[in-house]
Structure formats: structure tokens, C-alpha cells
Amino acid sequence: MPRNTSINSVLIIGSGPIVIGQACEFDYSGSQAALSLKEEGISVSIINSNPATIMTDNVVADHVYLLPLTVESIEQILQERQIDAVLPTMGGQTALNLCIEASNRGIWDKYNVKVIGVDVAAIEKTENREEFRQLMIDIGVGVATSKIANSFLEGKEAAQIIGFPLVIRPSYTLAGTGGGFVHKKEDFDAALNRGLHASPTHEVLVEQAVLGWKEFELELLRDTNDNVIIICTIENFDPMGIHTGDSITVAPGMTLSDKCYQDMRNQAIKMMRSIGNFAGGCNVQFSVNPENEEIIAIEINPRVSRSSALASKATGYPIAKIAAKLAIGYNLDELQNQITKTTSAYFEPTLDYVIVKVPRFNFDKFKGANKELGLQMKAVGEVMSIGRTFIEALQKAAQSLETGRAGLGADGRQSRNLEEIMHSLEHPSADRLFHIKDAFELGVPLESIRKATLIDKWFLVQIQELVQLEGELRRYQLSNIPRDFFMTLKQKGYSDYQIAWLLGNTTEDEVYARRKELGINRVYKMVDTCAAEFPAHTPYYYSTFEDENESVVSDRKKIIVLGSGPNRIGQGIEFDYSCVHGLLAAKECGYEAIMVNCNPETVSTDFNMADKLYFEPVFWEHVREIIELEKPEGVIVQLGGQTALKMAERLEALGVKIIGTSFANMDLAEDRGSFSDLLKELDIPYPKYGVATSAEEAIKVANEVGYPVLVRPSYVLGGQGMSIVINDEDLEKAVVNLLKNLPGNHILIDHFLDRAEEAESDSICDGEDVHIIGMMEHIEPAGIHSGDSSAVLPPFSLSENVQQKMEEYSIKLAKALNVLGLLNIQFAIKDENVYVIEANPRASRTVPFIAKAYDVPYINIATKVMLGENKLKDFTIVRKLEGYAIKEPVFSFSKFPEVDKQLGPEMKSTGEAIRFIKDLNDPHFRELYSKKSMFLNAQ
């Protein structure tokens, strides 16, 4: 059936600010869906409050509403614009809940708006735990023994009937919020209370715990003819008991028998067909008993999910794009396969490679947090890797994490504490994967590890083989490693750094040179979705060690953009936004734009965003070989946050051109001591400071500059390790701790300006002229990280004199640092004196906010300036802001109720929202401003 011609305008509901459990995967899904609908000539409107996303950009939608996600905002849009249909399946649980609320209040009926992509009744069936349980029983799908409870007494009765251990699952919550396992009777009352309070309907499911069972996810699509296809089967490396967002996952499934797989497929299709009459995407989760392969359903989500983004990147099948077209009436066999261009979308992808996803945690930001993993998701991001084998992909994922690991162990960071390791195996946390390898190295038997972790033996055998390989490698020197064995090591995912560490007395560069002598080179394989059964037309590649290279190098002039890797606190979706606009600008300038990144949630890793995508770790060895293959005009590091910036020195040493500000000038700004010396030369005020490399030096400096002092390391993002201290004892502890985590780092000791205000500027410099793109005044005072502060654009209370000084210092610094591209500067203001705290010659988290507030494509302009294609005078910049825009941080403290929520110099927010106000009498602003007065008085 062709598309529904009565639908000419669609409203897509976004997911709002990034929080743990709902991250930039919905930016990817929403953006892809919007572009898909626009292809059909449909007018697309988007509501979302997140300024850092591509989804809220005019390149994606016809009309963008940066409004709070409320029914009132929805009604405002429907009054302003003729909307035929709403698509609520691209914005996670937030969008679905808002859709239900609007439906219950009669909004959709009032404005004659169809809900497409899902059936509202289906949402009720899947989110209401009791309805879902009863539906599964009715259609013959197995479920765990459970009882619904709407009160404390009902919960107690359910626990008595089911017995321990059991699971508490609140209804209508995101990422397992409020849920958890209860192993002992004495822990039940508190857990039940948490669950009941977490559920907006005060309802929980008390369920039999199937701890140790395997967990699987299936991604499905269904059309209006009731055709259903399975896009991807994902197996959890970790057994039941850990939220899927915190689990290592693998595609395709590695340990499924064919019989069990077929049974699971049939049950998933039956489940999808049972939850209402709709066309779109769906995620189904199952648990499988490892003893007899009994299958029970865990849940079904009638929307795109975190796993949908992963499945799309894993298979190359654009789930959100096709789901959007199905929602407007198309059938699967009427749509083109985006990869082959010759077959229909009514096919199931076949993988001739292995995908591994590993979550990224940020427990260092939540001091005192319970790090044990369970039903409540705690990861802040994830990486995905592609290899020919599971173990190759697993090692590449470890290299992608941005935690300083060179692979799965063999890098000098192994633990040798057996007691700590065994505790970690039984009580899973972020390090358990690495501790499995450490346990094998210490001689712990495989069966003991299996009993402690309940991880399938097949996965453990793969890791155990690495220990055997490393033992064999130690018999050799670099000069006499047999070529076949060297090739085996590389095919098992070992980095050159790991091989050098295992051999000892050699370097990564020497290993690299030796394998090149032996003709052991990376080749690149295409992600083609059909295991080469049909010719594919996709510029989407991963590396491995074989003979044939499928990445054909063109003779076009090329630019490589280095991505930002996994999301984490301090480096989030705003850098992906920047990278995407960098790609678009490079393409507009006639370059072949090449993307390198490993984050499956992002728009930058969509296979049709760049001219060529390398889904690879942003890890030196991988980046180096891509550069050697493609021979680009240069590499852009300014848009990918700290991940990309850390490559700058090695790129320069290799003779690779850095597009934009040079490494030397970026390094000058990053080195806290050298930068303060520059400020002194320029006669720009700055807090008294000193540099120390030991606790003794730090105490001497602190007594010279005067307490309180701000202690901070060089070369970090998100305020990592920063603290304010008031005496020698606290300073010693802070410095010792920093040097333990960042050995060899230069520690900057600043006099802390108490009762000072904070502000910042962003600007673009083309080498001659400087354009201030925005100046913001913070609500919170100096001493609270800018990422955790509410920022108002333009400033609302700073005097003309202060603003002129900020502009003067911004221009001075841009020219002194020879900035080419973007520059962010942070200021402290006290008694009308303006002090510079730091300068960052790169994209910042505030640039997307300013771009959305003023409706100016600043990243595109900056990229064209960096490429030398334009000067600032070539652009006519017209700002559209009336009144003020406020950037407000959003936190995920609900995931860590035990941690200190006090804000300080180290960033803790996971996302941000934008709010527009007409004037300073706005009630929301007055509330924020009263908070500012309170903060300043408290100091």
C-alpha cells in the first residue's frame, strides 16, 4: 500500500535533555525519522528541549520548537500549525509518556491528530506490568511468576507467595528506575517502597528472579500488512540481573541453538502482533534458561530504543528511517534497501562480522556511589566495535572506551589483588570484564569464574585463550616473532601497544614498524547487511587483518573528522552535533568528508552522514592507519572534544596537518601554567596561581597565592579532578589523589575568587578578524563548573564595562593564540574586575546552545573558516533572539541516591535543556535569579 496521502504534516516528539537511560540514541532516531518523512514531501515539526542535538536543527526539520516537553507545549504547536499526525516512537519513554498524557486529556482528538507508529492502547499494554503479564499468558508466551502490587501490603503478600530472590519492576519508568533485585527478606520493605514511589502510577510488579539466565534482545519491524521482520538479535554477555544498558552485548547471538533461536523469533513476532494495530519498530527482551533453553518474555517496547540505534549501526539497516515510512502507510516490500539499492527493505540482515557493545561508566563523578550493577541503568554512554571475531571486536571495544586501556589487559593496568578480583566477579561493576581476564592470568580455573559470574562458558573460553597467546608471545623478541603468529595476535585484536608491553624493552612505534616490514596491514571491510550476497553501495567500513581491502580510496581532496567517542559527563552529544556540522560544511566546500568514531548512539555514525564512515576506535593506532590509507588534506580535531584533541600532538609529530588552530597553540591553552604566563604578557587579569608536580610544591604555592585555592590538573575535560580547598591538609590529600590518577600531570593551584560571578564567551577567529558569537552570564557563582551552571544569553546583569572587557580579552586571546576556528573563554567577575579563568580553542558545549538560540549555523561557519575556504567577512550573520535564552543543566542523581549532590568545580550534569524568556520578569527566571543571590551570599 502506498503512503497515506492524508498525512501531509507530522509532529515528532523528542526525548528532552540527556539523562542516564535516555541519551543521544534518540537524537539519532528522531533525526533519521525526520529526514525520512521529508523525503516524502511531508512537513516535519519537532518538539524537543535539548539544544545540543542535531534533531533540533533546521537541517533536519521544517519547524523546530525548543519548548519544554509538556502537554501545554504540544497544544501551543497544534494551535500554531496544522498537524495531521504525531510520531511519538522516536523520543524514548519521555515521548511515549507525553503522548499518553495528551491522549488522556483529549488533545489529539480535539485537534484531529492521528497517532502513528504505535497504538496508544499498545503502550498501555506494554507499560502496565499486569496487563503485559496477562497478555503473554493469553498468547502462550512464557513469563516469570509474578504479582502486581499497588500498595505496600499487596507487595508484601506477593513476596510471600513468590519467595526470594525476586525482582521489583515499577510501571512506566525509564532505564529500570526504582527497580532492583531483593535477595533477602530483610531488604524487601525498603526496596518495595522505592519501587512504588518511582512509578508514576504507584504500581510495581513483584516477580520471580531468574538470576543467571541468559538475556537476549530482538529488534523488529512491522508494516500495515502485518509483515514482521527481525532486524537483529543481540545477546547479552552478562547474564540476567544487569540492566541491558549496563551489559556488554554481542550481535549476532553467539550461544543460541538454532531451535531456541527459531522459537524466540516466533514468540517475538507473536508478541508484536498482539499489542495493537500499528506499523513501526519494536524491541523485545527475552530470558533463556541455560540448562534447558526455556524462554520467558521480559518486556516489549513498541518504539525505537537504545538497542535500535545499536542494531541499526550493527547491521547497516536504518531502523528509524524505515519505521517512519511504515508509520505513514508504506509496506516493507515497497521500500528500497538503502544498502544494496536493488532489493527491498523486506529482508533480514545477515552479518559476516561480530558486533560488541561495551557500556561507559562515570563513577568517578559520583563519589561514594554504589558501583554494583543491577536493574537500574548507571552507564552514561557506550561504544560499539566491529571485528571478524568476537575477541577481535571485544579488544577493539576496550580500546574505544576512553579509560586509558589499550585492549583487554596486557597494558600495565591489570589488577593482581585476587580478593578484589573475585569480589568483582561476584558483584559486577564497570571493571568486571577486565577482572575476568585478570583472574585467568592469576590462574583461577574457568569453572570458578563461570560460577562467580554466571557468564556463558563460550565467552569465557574466548578470553582465556588470550592468556595462552600472551604466554606464547613472551617466548619471543620483536625481531623473531613468526609472521603467522604476529598475524594471529592482530586478528585477536591486540594493539601494537599491548604487544610492546608484553614483550618489554620495546615501543609501540617499533612494533608498528616491524609488522609493516612483515606486510601485516589493516584492511577495511564494508558493512553491507547481506554478507556479500548482493552488491552493496555503502561507505561504511571497519578494520580487520586479512588480505582484501574493500575501502577504495578516491582521488578527491579529503578531510578526516575525528569524533568524540563514547558519551560521558563533560563530553556529550554537543560534540557529535559539532562533528556532524563539520562534515556537512566540508562537503559543501567540495571535500570528501570522512568520519572516524565508535559511538553507536550518534548521528555522526549514521552511514549516510559522511562521504565515508570508519566505525573504528578513536585510538591512535587505528586513526594512524586510516590516515595512511586515505592521505587527507588534514584532520579536524577541534570538534570532537578531548578525545580528538589528545591526538593532536601525535598527528603533528607524524606530519599530518591539523585543520584549524595548531597543536602548539592548543597546547599553550591546555597547559595551565603556560597559559597563565600568556595572560600576564597580555596584561589580562587572572587569579594568582602557581604550578606544582608534588604535594610539597603545592603547599608552598598555596601559601604564596593564599587560601582558598582551586586545585586542577592540566589536559582534562569536565572539571575532572578539580576541587576547592581551604588548608594544607586538604590540599595534600587532593594533590596526592590527583597524581595517583594522573601521574606526571602538572597541577595548577589558583587563588579562588570567592563571591565572584562567572561568565563565558564563544568566538570564531579566521586569523585576522574575531566574531563574538555569544556571551553568557552564569546563574551560579564561580566555583561551580560551567557545565553544571545555568547560563543566560545574552548577559542580564553584567555592566557594559564588564561586557566590553570580556570582548576585549576574547579578541586579544584569539589573536595571541593564533586561533583558527572556535574559542571558548571562561571569566570570573568580582567588583567590576574581569579575570580570565581558562580558554579552550575548540568547540565547546555552549556553541550548539548559542547556535540554536540565535538561529545561526556557527559550526558550519567555523569549519569553513578552518578549512580556509572563507573569511568571517564573507558571512552575513543575522541573530533572531528576542529576549533571553537560558541553558539549564539536568542531572541523573536519582540513579545514585547515596552520593553527595553538592555542586562544585567538577562537572556532574548529564545533559541540558534550553528555555526562552521574553524578559527578566519571567517567573522561571526570577526563581533562578533568587538562587544566584542565595549562592553568592552563602559564599
UniProtKB/TrEMBL annotation:
Highest rank taxon of the organism: Bacteria
Any one GO molecular function term: carbamoyl-phosphate synthase (glutamine-hydrolyzing) activity
Catalytic activity: hydrogencarbonate + NH4(+) + 2 ATP = carbamoyl phosphate + 2 ADP + phosphate + 2 H(+)
InterPro entries the UniProt entry points to: ATP-grasp, ATP_grasp_subdomain_1, CarbamoylP_synth_lsu_oligo_sf, CPAse_ATP-bd, CPSase_dom, CPSase_lsu, CPSase_lsu_oligo, CPSase_preATP-grasp
Domain (ATP-grasp) ranges: 133-328, 676-867
Keyword terms of this UniProt record: ATP-binding, Ligase, Nucleotide-binding, Repeat
EC number: 6.3.4.16
Membrane-spanning ranges: none
Class in the EC hierarchy, top level: ligase
Matches recorded under Pfam families: CPSase_L_D1, CPSase_L_D2, CPSase_L_D3
PROSITE patterns registered for this protein in UniProt: ATP_GRASP, CPSASE_1, CPSASE_2, PROKAR_LIPOPROTEIN
PANTHER family reported in the protein's UniProt record: CARBAMOYL-PHOSPHATE SYNTHASE [AMMONIA], MITOCHONDRIAL, CARBAMOYLTRANSFERASE FAMILY MEMBER
Stated family: Belongs to the CarB family.
Protein name: carbamoyl-phosphate synthase (ammonia)
Organism of origin: Sphingobacterium tenebrionis
